[in-house]
Write a structure and sequence with these properties.
Blueprint (H helix, E strand, L loop, with lengths): L13 H4 L5 H6 L2 H7 L3 H33 L1 H8 L4 H8 L3 H13 L3 E3 L5 E3 L1 H8 L3 H6 L1 H8 L2 H6 L4 H12 L18
Antiparallel strand pairs: 1-2
Length: 193
Amino acid sequence: MTMDVQDAGGSVSPHAQAPWRGMAARLIAQPGFQAWAARLPVIRRIARRDGEEIFDILQGFVASQVLVVLVELGVLRDLLATGPQRPDTLAFRYEIPAHRMAHLLQAGAAIGLLKRCRGGMYAIGRKGAAILGVPGLEGMISHNRELYADLADPLSVLREARNPACLVLALRARRWSGAAPGRGAGLLEPAGR
């Protein structure tokens, strides 16, 4: 005899109705299973791919911050106009401590926006140049500051229906729904135009 487990709304839990549902997820969530999976070649490839994708999700926020800083400072446009520069030169120009500018430039190179050149200099990379070539994209990137403020407390964004942040996200989704390779002109157009 199985006992039905009801939630606060009085409905029966899916696990109580069919205990096999979610069994794979519960198994995968066990650290012992993860260790076992790492030893089997076929499953190890799947686990490694999943791990890399999870890391990409985690790394995405940091990459976005680097992108915003490079765009807001004007480093991408500067490097396009002047060519390769040393970190200390850019640090002086933007009034940022040299060691911090060096970290920013290294991060920009790591995500492909910049490239490191001989002599410790940095130049704009292919992806950085592509950002400058898409009309409206720099403005969209700079607008991310509002999104970052929302991310300080993402639960409130979801819980508060009248939170202005929700409106910002909704407007942004409409405004930049055309953001796709080869559709630069549509970036600032509302969806469906």
